[in-house]
Each structure stands twice: as C-alpha cells, then as structure tokens.
Amino acid sequence: MAKTILEIKGLRKTYGHHEVLKGVDCSVAEGEVISIIGSSGSGKTTMLRCVNMLEEFQDGTISLDGEEIGYHIEGSSRRRKSDKEIARQRALTGMAFQQFNLFPHMSAAENVMLGLIKVKKMQKAAARAIAERWLDRVGLSARANHYPGQLSGGQQQRVAIARAIAMSPRLMLFDEVTSALDPELVGEVLQVIKGLAADGMTMLLVTHEMRFAYEVSSRVIFMNQGVICEQGEPKEMFVRPKTERLAEFLKTSSFN
Questions:
Q1: Which domain holds residue 21?
Q2: pTM exceeds 0.85 for this model
Q3: 30 and 202 Cβ atoms separated by less than 8 Å
Q4: Total domains, the chain
Q5: Taking the CB of residue 81, how many other CB atoms lie within 10 A of it?
Q6: DSSP letter at 2?
Q7: Is residue 106 part of a domain?
Q8: Which CATH number covers residue 65?
Q9: 237-249: string of b/e by CB count within 10 Å (b at 16+)?
C-alpha cells in the first residue's frame, strides 16, 4: 500500500465571519494525482494554500510526510510555528500558481536556480545543471537564457513549473495553472503536467480543465461551499456522479 504523503483532518478556515473551509478531510498517497474541481468560491484554492501555509487556518491539522504543518500544541494551546520552521516546511511542497511570478530581470535558468542557491545553498554550477535539466524536461532547453518578457505565457508557466520541481518537493501543488493562458497555450502546459504524472510525481491540482482531470487523475475531489461533496475515480465521478450538485456542475463545465 502506498505511503500517505498528505493528511488533512478537520480543516477549517474563516475570513472574518465567513467560513470558507468547513471541516475538510483529505489524504494523498505517494504517486497519486488528485484533481480538485468545483465552482468558484468553493474553497479549492484556499485548501491548497493552507497546505503550504500561504493561508493560516483556524482549526484542524495538516500533516506532510508525517510532519504536522504550521502549528504545534503547547499544553492546551495551539501555536503557530516559527517563520523559520514554516519556511523549512514550505520547501517540502512545490507550488505553481495562476500567475507565473517570475523575476523579469532574471533569465529562465536564473529563475529556476534562485531557490536552489538561496534555500538549498547550492553552488551556482550545481544549481545551473539542475535548472538546465528541468528546463529541458519541460521543453525549454533552447530558452534557458531568455528573459520572461521574451517568452510566451505558456513558456513562462513551464519555467515556473520547472522552478518548483527543481526543489525536489515531496508534493507538487498546482493552482489553476492554465487559467491565465490564451487557449492555444493551455495544451503545452497540460502536456508537461501529464508527463510529470506519468513519472509518478505526487500532485494535488485545482483545475477547471475537466477533460484533463478525467484523463490524468487517479482520484477527483469535488468541493462545494467549503466541504468535499464527493470524491472517487474519474470515470465514476464524471460518468456516474452520485450527488445532484456534481451532476449540475458537470453540465455547465467543459467536460463533454
């Protein structure tokens, strides 16, 4: 049986009086590719951002590779871990966002190298070798010395993915990575993710690309109003939804 990489229990997140996550339970096994689908505002991205502490949460636990993320218990009190400890834990995950967040004054290779040098304290030559390997893996070896402004949106997103993966994360998080791209550029990014899935990388993806979720996922999670309404294998979820809410969602989605 595959090892559990991520374990979420009773996760609750509020903004003021608005409860965004209402007691979410979820686990991800090593090598699993899990797509999270649902309407805007259902809590998908918030859950993802809680996993690597880009968002603090009010209740519940998140464990990555058996290590509790973000908080610890002192007596009867729940306390946030130090910024240094959270930064170390955050490096256990890689995350690609809707926006590419590349440094415009750095080449593609330099963007990928930055975390390796600053966080992992690698020498430039070693970091460059890793950067070149991953840029080649995402089909951009010929663009290693190009700056973001010289790259298409799809190419910039592939650099951002290479940058995250170069850090050797235990879990890769993707948050709607194609939503900011022109339609003709979506396929090249999805193809990279498909290749990573085929390599056995453990991934948690928020996506609105239903056909992609159907083809690539080992499991699909459907979220609605801050809770997981339904989850299971893609064929069961997309072909034979068990809840009326999922059936309604699929009718209005891009899956056909």
A1: 4-101+170-252
A2: yes
A3: yes
A4: 1
A5: 16
A6: P
A7: no
A8: 3.40.50.300
A9: bbeebeeebbeeb
